[in-house]
Specification:
about 400 residues; Jelly Rolls; Immunoglobulin-like; six-stranded antiparallel β-sheet; five-stranded antiparallel β-sheet; 2 helices; 26 strands; about 5% helix
């Protein structure tokens, strides 16, 4: 004898708050929900089954911050203002890009990770707090999704939560960027126009159709991408958002295929971290052992997560080396006496790295003696953090 299970059915707009364990089927969007007592939880969709990676945005929930969780806008790079780059990666995969002129001044304020509450669940978000607007030309908070071919020729829907005080304005851009190098096709940019934020958090949804990339020319630099940008200011636009002092909060950003915004895909944090490490990874080398080669070079084989391309090496924290003399009964730990600097990286199938360590040119005779003595012995690294950077710029 079987038991019939009753399932609520109807349009998604008419879906009520389901009781705990109650099931609801949206006949128009083909989504299945189950009630948890506090919210309706999406468990299945014909377009986006569980862990389908429907969200093409990585770290859309701002869970991963390998570079830190608080950044001073006054210290950020501005393209055209004593810098040839304007990228300032903050939360993983998210770039706070600014451009200006030689006479521009940075805005002041902070970009930080904060925690808010969504239906009783703590959620991470990006908070941008502006205390002085400065004089830059463009400010974009964007993510570059690898490959301009992503969802080309299809409708896509962008959804996010946001709020802001002082009638903050943003503009949302979706940009098919064909890269640089050679003669790539020009970018195809679509935008929403001004969005005026309110102090009360709202969910915003916008649908775009991405043109096909057939017949387009891709740049040779390998940085073509589909870009999603929150535009805070762009003076090249006749209706640029009015960048002003105040606060903007953004979280749960999603870009997915289709014309309907579905529930935010909350992937396990371990999966999100792995996705981020394809582009950027910090590694602490404390306790690692180097084997000496000569007076200027030592090497270590380092395992790291595969990257989208050969990464560049960034030296984050100071490096000091120590070695054990192990001469007879003497087992003294000796400090080499000054920091050495990582200057090179050799890739072995994106899985192992050879780090070159080169001493400063102006050193004392005693320091030179220490180095020459140490090179024939195992050397221990202390107080060193490096980053492998394969981000899209």
């Amino acid at each position: 004898m079987s038991t019939k299970i009753q399932v609520r059915r109807g349009l998604k707009a008419d879906l009520p708050q389901l009781s705990t364990g109650e099931i609801g089927l949206c006949t128009d969007t083909e989504q299945l929900y189950i009630g948890t007592g506090g919210k309706n939880l999406e468990v299945l969709s014909t377009n986006s089954p569980a862990m389908s990676f429907k969200n093409k945005i990585i770290n859309g929930n701002f869970d991963v911050w390998q570079r830190g969780t608080s950044f001073d806008l006054a210290d950020m790079k501005v393209y055209g203002l004593a810098s040839t780059v304007g990228s300032n990666y903050v939360a993983d995969r998210w770039d706070f890009f600014m451009s200006g002129t030689t006479s521009s001044t940075n805005p002041t304020g902070t970009l930080t990770k904060i925690i808010t509450d969504l239906n009783g669940v703590p959620i991470n978000e990006t908070q941008i707090n502006i205390t002085n607007v400065g004089e830059v030309i463009q400010i974009y908070y964007l993510q570059r999704i690898e490959s301009v071919h992503t969802l080309a020729g299809k409708p896509v829907t962008v959804s996010f939560y946001a709020d802001g005080d002082n009638n903050q304005e943003i503009d949302l851009h979706v940009n098919q960027f064909f890269g640089v190098g050679g003669t790539p096709s020009p970018s195809v940019v679509q935008r929403t126009g001004k969005i005026i934020l309110t102090p009360i958090t709202q969910k915003y949804t916008y649908t775009f159709f991405l043109p096909s990339t057939a017949g387009k020319t891709i740049g040779t630099a390998g940085n073509n991408s589909l870009n999603l940008a929150f535009v805070l200011k762009d003076t090249s636009l006749s209706d640029s958002p009015n960048f002003k002092t105040g606060t903007i909060n953004i979280y749960q950003v999603q870009l997915e295929e289709g014309e309907v915004a579905t529930e935010f895909e909350q992937r396990p944090i371990a999966i999100e971290e792995l996705l981020c490490k394809r582009y950027y990874e910090t590694i602490g080398l404390n306790g690692a052992v180097l084997m000496g080669r000569n007076s200027n070079l030592a090497a270590i084989n380092l395992q790291y997560y595969p990257k989208r391309t050969n990464p560049s090496l960034v030296h984050i924290a100071p490096l000091r080396l120590f070695f054990n003399t192990r001469e007879g009964n003497d087992s003294t730990i000796r400090d080499i006496g000054y920091p050495l600097f990582i200057v090179g990286i050799g890739s072995m199938e994106n899985k192992a790295t050879l780090l070159g360590l080169f001493g400063a040119s102006l050193i004392t005779a005693e320091q030179k003696e220490n180095i020459l003595f140490a090179m024939a012995k195992p050397i221990v690294i202390a107080d060193c953090i490096i980053a492998l950077d394969a981000e899209i710029y």
